[in-house]
Amino acid sequence: SLQGYESFMIKEIRESWGAVKDTISGLMEDSANLGKAVKALDKARRILIVAAGTSYHAGLIFATRLLRAGKTVIPIIASEHDTVKSGQDDVVLVISQSGETMDSLLALKDYKAQGSFIISLTNTLGNSISSYSNVSLHTRAGPEIGVAATKTFTSQVGALLLMSSLLLGENLDYLKEAENVVSSSFSKSIGYAEKIGIEISRKQSVYYLSKGIGVPMAMEGALKIKEIAYIHSEAYPAGESKHGPIALVERDFPVIFINTGEHVEELRNNLKEMESRKARAYVISAGVEIKSDTEVKEILVNVSDQRLAPLALAPPLQLIAYYAAKERGTNPDRPRNLAKTVTVR
Ligand code: F6R
């Protein structure tokens, strides 16, 4: 039930830090399965990541961390899996909140038939995707009623940070702050997110720009606002915007910069380019500010470790979409044309 909240979406965003905590501790307690998964990923010739929508964006964060460490990783949108053949030495990680997404299930079956080892990360027990997997891991976000994924996404990111850190031999202590980083980001950013959401609710189109591990977060922000506020949005690597997208930017065109605290100098230059075209820029920073010398509004959410930046950026991006939808009077829990679980091809 709504328990006094205006919508499931806001309730579930508020549940996201507890969900991240439960996910990380739950996976650690499931150490036999987690160990099997990490061992398989470590031995893999290539890691294929298969998912759709928001789950794909979580997968891209995992992929970015591993690619930077020199691993061979191929992120694949489930419905496009025909473009990549797998083999016996490959490990496929299927990420799906529901565990029932038809595109992801069909990809899993094809890759399994091609001899690959299958690991899944789902948020329910006894779902189809986990039943076909060699190792099934779970996020512990609890039931998500809002159609747009919020706390399940943040939980996936938490799980994938843990898995990538194990794979890369990193010390896990930084993850103890995961819950705190998400909850304090929520409190700190809610006011600014509401303001951005209200301003953007009157716009036709918005860009989300970032660099590095922030690009999948930009993609997720753009997907959320499209889904629940019906505002056209696109996400780009900031450096790519000058290769075409900037043509649309004119006075008051909204551009949201997502700053993970790395590549700050480059983002500052991209921000200047946008401002010189009189764009309406907003900056959401985790850990390190861009500090533009102009009037642009910037919010800084704290991270105890830069690796937690994607977790810290999730609440403001979800809240922007929530407040834009609210301002437009649309129901954030039941966006038109969308189903919670897409069981058709
Ligand atoms: C976004 C959203 C969808 C799902 C996608 C995959 O808010 O809800 O994009 O993320 O349909 O769903 P799962 O994770 O259940 O496979």
UniProtKB/TrEMBL annotation:
Catalytic activity: D-fructose 6-phosphate + L-glutamine = D-glucosamine 6-phosphate + L-glutamate
E.C. number: 2.6.1.16
Coiled coil: 257-284
Keywords: Aminotransferase, Coiled coil, Glutamine amidotransferase, Repeat, Transferase
A GO biological-process term: UDP-N-acetylglucosamine metabolic process
Residue ranges of every copy of the SIS domain listed in the record: 37-174, 196-335
GO MF term (any one): carbohydrate derivative binding
Protein name: glutamine--fructose-6-phosphate transaminase (isomerizing)
Species of provenance: Metallosphaera cuprina (strain Ar-4)
Section of the entire sequence shown: 251 to 595 of 595
